[in-house]
Write a structure and sequence with these properties.
globular; 7-stranded antiparallel beta sheet; 23 strands; about 20% helix
């Protein structure tokens, strides 16, 4: 099949705004179409990476391809505001494609990150021509991921860097149109290349390069709770309107890993048709938001860890062949859930998520009251603690625990993924609770949560939790982590401050992992109150954090209580079928 390439095709929207696309379509006959909607410039398709099949592969597979600049970006008209117009624009674009003489009337969508989110927004409109989506590193709930978090803390570094990047693109457009200034564009470009100074500015809302540009930055900061503003962007209630199968793609160290797993499970329960519910698929590798290589300075997951090794592109083509082209045999023999199990570093085929044979097991925090640092006496055991106790540390927001890897954006943080934690585990404001050296492998696959009994000298503070695999040589590799802002312990919608020194039960969502803790290793849980600049620092005052200065910050004395009356614990999803499968 030969294709004709048309550049800068204008596609009209319902409000008379035109969006611009590059289109590859057959010179003769009709073909199914794959649509990619991108806010970063449609002409960068050559650099989209392994999570999106490359253009040549899609064309050789017999598809027409449309790559479109989102509203207000690239060469498209209109004003860009994250997520505001994507539902209607996606629906209108799909309808336009279906009407073209080269289209057979069927459309699929693919793309990563924001390009994955716009797929859900289009699918929620239920356009008749849309037959399947393949969102990668994406989310239905924009508050929990990526802008804030499941615990209510602001994803500071990501929001700073991404806003600067998008503002830079907008400033470039303005300059080309004769407005704006070169100085403004240069300032935003410098902030993208060197984001660290933005993270240090207090109050957060006064970051000059962002506050001066305005737009969504101010709106995001004005709504720190999951209120009506964020609920308007939450697509979970629209799942009954989604009637197409989805191929969910995620990474254990991606910022959206928790969202990808929650969204997969939610779509299997709540999508609008029996077929859509049954035909949700999931692939999770040892990847982060920008890399599917599976290789990091402190941990390599081997040659089979890559997206190419698992033939991710081939899987996407087969998925679209099944649901867009209508080849009913295309997915035969392919498991609906494929996950990479770290520790043993191999792929595993499953039928569901969470795994149906999961044994949820409490590992209790204990010790003699001096769990500070990895050399402290904190313990972690499947046996309940018989003696009461507590561990105490000082959280000073002027001296936060630095982000050291994890499910964060490497372009904003400088590093992501698995990183040796010894540099932070030596701090006196990090509590470490570890098992004895394991004699048998312990397989942990599934969602992870931590329940703590806490008290604080402050009316508000944060609590962080991190699951760590400690190797025989002392290297400590992070697996997953989470944070909870205490004011949101009962609900992300409404804040309730603490009564100082009163003991509260809280739960921290650590997303999920798939790891076999091998013999000779130890399972460790690290507790603290900051992870900066991945998240903003809690000032401990109970005030509006985004508007508070460094002078307003106060230290907090925080305690973790454990024992029979205060069973602080991490709940691990244990799989007992052995490590050979």
């Amino acid at each position: 099949m030969t294709h004709l390439y048309e550049i800068d095709v204008k596609i009209p929207m319902r409000d008379a705004v035109s969006l611009t696309a590059n289109v590859w379509h057959p010179t003769e006959g009709r073909a199914p179409t794959l649509l990619i909607r991108i806010p970063y410039g449609k002409d960068m398709e050559v650099a989209m990476g392994d999570t999106i099949p490359n253009l040549t592969t899609l064309l050789e597979a017999g598809y027409a391809v449309v790559i479109q600049d989102c509203r207000g970006t690239g060469r498209s008209d209109g004003e860009f505001f994250p997520h505001a117009a994507e539902r209607a624009d996606g629906e209108d674009t799909i309808a336009w494609i279906a009407e073209q003489p080269w289209s057979d009337g069927t459309v699929g969508m693919t793309g990563t990150s924001y390009m994955g989110m716009v797929q859900w927004e289009a699918a929620g409109a239920n356009p008749p021509a849309l037959k399947a989506i393949a969102p990668c590193f994406a989310t239905l709930d924009k508050y929990r991921t990526p802008w804030y978090s499941t615990g209510g803390a602001l994803s500071l570094g990501l929001v700073h860097w991404w806003s600067a990047m998008m503002y830079a693109g907008d400033a470039k457009r303005s300059l080309a149109q004769g407005t704006g200034t070169v100085e403004q564009l240069m300032g935003l470009g410098a902030a993208v290349l060197y984001p660290e100074p933005m993270n240090e500015v207090l109050p957060i809302g006064d970051v000059p390069i962002l506050a001066g540009y305005g737009k969504w930055w101010n709106d995001f900061l004005a709504h720190p709770a999951h209120d009506e503003f964020w609920q308007a962007f939450d697509l979970r209630p629209a799942l009954p309107d989604v009637t197409v199968p989805a191929l969910h793609i995620g990474g254990w160290y991606d910022i959206a890993i928790g969202a990808a797993l929650r969204d997969f499970a939610a779509a299997r329960r709540n999508a609008g048709t029996e077929e859509a519910r049954a035909e949700q698929r999931l692939v999770i590798g040892p990847w982060d938001h920008t890399s599917t290589a599976g290789t990091y300075p402190d941990r390599s997951f081997g040659p089979m860890a890559t997206a190419r090794a698992v033939r991710l592109t081939n899987l996407q083509i087969k998925f679209f062949d099944r649901w867009v082209r209508g080849d009913t045999t295309a997915l035969d023999g392919i498991a609906p859930v494929q996950i990479f199990v770290m520790g043993i570093d191999r792929w595993r085929d499953e039928q569901a998520w969470p795994l149906p044979d999961t044994r949820w097991t409490d590992f209790h925090l204990g010790g003699g009251g001096h769990a500070n640092t990895a050399d402290g006496d904190g313990t972690l055991s499947a046996e309940a603690e018989s003696s009461p106790g507590h561990d105490t540390y000082l959280y000073d927001p002027r001296r936060p625990v630095p982000t050291t890897g994890g499910a964060c954006l490497p372009t904003a943080m400088g590093v992501s993924g698995p990183v040796d934690q010894r540099s932070v585990a030596g701090r006196d404001d990090v509590l470490c609770y570890a098992t004895p050296v394991l004699e048998q492998p312990v397989e942990v696959i599934g969602p992870i949560s931590v329940t703590l009994f806490v008290s604080s000298s402050a009316v508000d503070t944060d609590f962080t939790a991190k699951l760590v695999d400690v190797l025989p040589d002392g290297k400590a590799i992070n697996l997953c982590d989470g944070i909870l802002r205490a004011r949101y312990r009962d609900s992300l919608e409404h804040e309730v401050l603490l009564e100082p020194e009163k003991i509260y039960e809280i739960t921290i969502d650590l997303a999920a992992t798939a790891n076999v803790f091998l013999p000779g290793h130890r399972i460790r849980l690290d507790i603290s109150s900051s992870n900066f600049p991945r998240y903003d620092r809690n000032t401990n005052t109970g005030g509006v954090i985004a508007r508070e200065t460094e002078e307003q910050m106060i230290p907090a004395i925080n305690r973790i209580h454990h024992g029979p009356d205060h069973p602080s614990r991490i709940v691990l999803p244990i799989i007992d079928r052995g490590t050979s499968r």
